[in-house]
Amino acid sequence: MNLRINIKKRTPKFSIDINTVKNTGIVGILGASGSGKSLFLKCLAGLESMDSGEIILDSKVLYNAKINLPPQQRNIAYLFQNYGLFPNMTVAKNIQICAKTKDINQIIAMFRLEHLLNIYPEKLSGGEQQRVAIARILASKPKVILLDEPFSALDARLRKDIEFDMIRLLSNFAGIVFIVSHDKDELYRFSQDIMIIHNGNVIEQGKKDKIYKHPIHLQTARLVGYDNIINAQMLNKKSNQCICVKSEDIKINEDGKNKAVVIECIEDIDNNIVYLQCNGEVIRAKDKRHYLKKQQVKFDLENYIVNDV
Length: 309
Ligand SMILES: Nc1ncnc2c1ncn2[C@@H]1O[C@H](COP(=O)(O)OP(=O)(O)OP(=O)(O)O)[C@@H](O)[C@H]1O
What we know:
Layout: E1 2-10, E2 15-23, E3 25-31, H1 37-45, E4 52-57, E5 60-63, E6 76-79, H2 91-98, H3 105-110, H4 126-139, E7 144-148, H5 156-171, E8 176-180, H6 184-190, E9 193-198, E10 201-207, H7 208-213, H8 218-223, E11 228-231, E12 241-245, E13 250-252, E14 258-266, E15 272-278, E16 281-287, E17 296-301, E18 305-308
Parallel strand pairs: 3-8, 3-9, 6-7, 7-8
Antiparallel strand pairs: 1-2, 1-4, 4-5, 9-10, 11-12, 12-18, 13-17, 14-15, 14-17, 15-16
Bound molecules: adenosine-5'-triphosphate.
């Protein structure tokens, strides 16, 4: 499978300008709130207008200067945040009406929906609605599946239960999946590749390990969990660089090379969150011990990366 994407669309704050090629697999999309993730997916699905560009799926033009196929002709399925089930149809009918296969029994079994077939959507729990919605998408045999925050309506326990099933089902899907989530850890578990969107542009993309462990851009570093971006000069390093380090990798210890003062120590479940002041910068650390305000401490950095500013 081959999907060539060139999407240009003006928004009041910035222009979406995304140019990328994807083959079979699951692509996670990370970006700050309002960076254009949903708009990108909606343009791809044909649910939003574009200013210009080109979308070609396996040599079929979905969009260019002359062609603009409606959503139902694109072979791209978009999972709505509220799942978009038809309220006046039973689960079975919801699936049948979208199915491009006569044998939907396999999909029904795969999603463990047998006991729900005659139920109407309003009687389903959030997790059940989601299972039906994804079963319906797979029955429609799309080439591309777009999942925009697919778990946002579910509580933490249900998310965990469903995650296992979803990863299993999606990894057997022969097409391309784009999944947007604000949860970087969840996205890592689902995806093979990651795309970072910032102000409507893809600033970094590639294999998930590369993006999560060796981010090039500061925005990427922040998104994948480097919650401290420290001016390197402060730690006697080059002035035009910064150090990205996760709070769990700030090690407070008596022999530490760097001095700091505790500003605040907030109790948390596993580790306390300790805010340190060091040469005018605030650093966030995690530590099992409790610290007093104004306490002098020393710390070292582990597993940090250095980026140019
Ligand atoms: N139909 C539209 N036309 C033009 N601009 C839009 C449209 N819909 C949303 N926008 C704007 O485009 C920007 C990106 O919005 P979008 O919903 O894609 O962000 P997002 O990255 O998905 O955010 P979040 O993570 O908060 O859901 C926002 O500034 C938004 O106001």
